[in-house]
Design a protein that fits this description.
This protein has helices at 13-25, 59-62, 71-81, 95-107, 122-137, 154-159, 200-203, 205-211, 239-249, 272-275, 301-304, 320-335, 338-359, 388-400, 425-443; strands at 38-42, 45-48, 53-56, 114-119, 141-145, 177-180, 218-223, 253-257, 281-284, 295-300, 363-369, 372-377, 403-404, 406-408, 414-416. It is built from 15 helices and 15 strands. The strands form three sheets. It has a seven-stranded mixed sheet with strand order 4-10-9-8-7-5-6, sandwiched between helices. A four-stranded mixed sheet has the order 1-2-3-13. 36% of the residues lie in helices and 15% in strands. The structure holds pyridoxal-5'-phosphate.
């Protein structure tokens, strides 16, 4: 039986009425990818307030690798609700915070003993990673990448690349942040071709030290193992070993931002493991808790302990319910082997997407690792002109036909997959059927498939 069930045109009348209230009461800047209000969610399925059933390929922006309301997560949170909800770890500690740190210390990539700090959001994690790196190295500068996204608070924004909508109008930003090109081979900033380029972009860091900022002034390089908001770009295998070798030689720390790529999405617990990236510090959030706000920084113990007592923390960081949820999530990922599941889903997508790429000029590139897969849409395969308007049309077609989908990319022309990894093969095929119809509709100007209300 089909999962998608459409009862009203989407958005339905209740969603539309709520949107009118929302428009009067909520700031305009808090954007929605879809105009649909949710009533409830389970696994990979959303039911909206009009009774429509949609498949979720957005997962609350990649937070639901274990699915909506995974039973073990709900049960763990429920048990915690009966004990206590908040004391602040900075006032009265509790065991679950320690247990999450122990677990992350054991599974996060990187050699030697590790320690962990828990905070509330991805942006707070990247901010704290910078504080820790500066405190340890006693150096000021941070190098980040073009097309990177590290959050919306001020330091995180300074390290983020995309100007609109993230940065424009919010200047000035904290100083001593420098951006260099990422290994985005489809749109190489140096107009080179892999592999003949021999990862020039990574080697160019040495040049940056001569022309932009002295190596001995740089505390850390912060990098997403796979670009998230920047369009699911996976660097070639030589990129990270080359980059980290240069950083080590100059005493510069490497911070891996695994906020979007972590927790099985890329077919391993962390994308670093698949890309030869050995970080000193790792930032995590999103799918760590299966839907509650919590983030973490884990890294080499000597680095993590550089700030003095009282220099790190916050009122809500490592909330007890979120800690219980995280312990349940980490258990589910291992027990249900979601890394293997991510790879299987990725394969299933790649097979079908290869046909789309062969068939339509619109599909410029199919790329990704594990289930962190994407399509880059272009107006011409020769010029690679970004098809941003067409990408919006694909996403709109999808939600109107029961598939929630979000876009990405500095040019807004990437369709990305962030579905819960617990969806069934049948749901995956059904969702890909909608995406295929959307691409056909936009690429060939085919009429939209009629939505047949049940
Ligand atoms: C790689 C990466 N870093 C940081 C962030 C910021 O996380 P948050 O929105 O929880 O502040 C995000 C969010 O999309 C992200 O994808």
């Amino acid at each position: 039986m089909a999962t998608i069930q459409i009862r009203t045109p989407i958005p339905g009348p209740r969603s539309q009425a709520l949107m009118r209230r929302r428009n009067a009461a909520v700031v305009e800047a808090a954007y929605h990818a879809t105009p649909v209000f949710v009533a409830k969610a389970d696994g990979a399925v959303i039911e909206d307030v009009d009774g429509n059933r949609l498949i979720d390929f957005a997962g609350g922006i990649g937070c639901l690798n274990v699915g909506h309301r995974a039973p073990a997560v709900v049960e763990a949170v429920r048990r915690q609700l009966d004990r206590f909800l908040h004391t602040s770890f900075n006032v009265l500690p509790y065991e679950s915070y320690v247990a999450v740190c122990e677990k992350l210390n054991a599974i996060v990539p990187g050699k030697g003993p590790k320690k962990t700090l828990l905070v509330n959001s991805g942006a707070e994690a990247t901010e704290n990673a910078v504080k820790i790196a500066r405190s340890y190295t006693r150096r000021p500068a941070i190098i980040a990448f073009e097309d990177a996204f590290h959050g919306r608070t001020y330091m995180a924004m300074a390290m983020t690349s995309k100007t609109h909508p993230y940065k424009a109008g919010f200047e000035p930003f904290p100083s001593d942040v420098y951006q260099i090109p990422y290994a985005y081979c489809y749109r190489c900033s140096y107009s080179m071709k892999y592999p003949s380029c021999e990862v020039f972009c990574a080697k160019h860091l040495e040049d940056t030290f001569k022309r932009v900022v002295a190596a001995e002034s740089v505390a850390a390089v912060i990098v997403e193992p796979i670009l998230g908001e920047g369009g699911f770009v996976t660097p070639p295998p030589e990129f990270f070993p080359t980059l980290t070798e240069i950083c080590r030689r100059h005493g510069i720390l490497v911070i891996a931002d695994e906020i979007q790529s972590g927790f099985a999405r890329a077919g391993a617990m962390f994308a670093c493991e698949r890309l030869g990236l050995e970080p000193d510090l790792v930032t995590m959030a999103k799918s760590l808790t299966g839907g509650l706000p919590m983030a973490a920084v884990t890294g080499r113990a000597d680095i993590m302990d550089a700030p003095a007592v009282g220099q790190l923390g916050g009122t809500f960081g490592g909330n007890p319910a979120a800690c219980e949820a995280a312990l349940a999530v980490l258990n589910i990922i291992e027990k249900e082997n979601l890394c293997a599941r991510a790879n299987a889903l990725g394969e299933r997508f790649r097979k079908r997407a290869a046909k789309w790429q062969a068939q339509w000029e619109l599909v410029g590139e199919v790329r990704g690792l594990g289930a962190m897969q994407a399509l880059e849409l272009v107006r011409s395969k020769t010029t690679c002109q970004p098809a941003d308007e067409e990408t919006k049309q694909v996403a709109q077609y999808c939600y109107e036909h029961g598939l929630l989908m979000i876009t990405a990319g500095s040019y807004g022309n990437v369709i990305r997959l962030l579905m819960p990894l617990v969806l069934t093969d049948e749901q995956m095929d059904e969702a890909m059927g909608v995406l295929e119809a959307a691409l056909a509709h936009v690429a060939e100007k085919k009429p939209a498939l009629a939505v047949q209300p049940v």
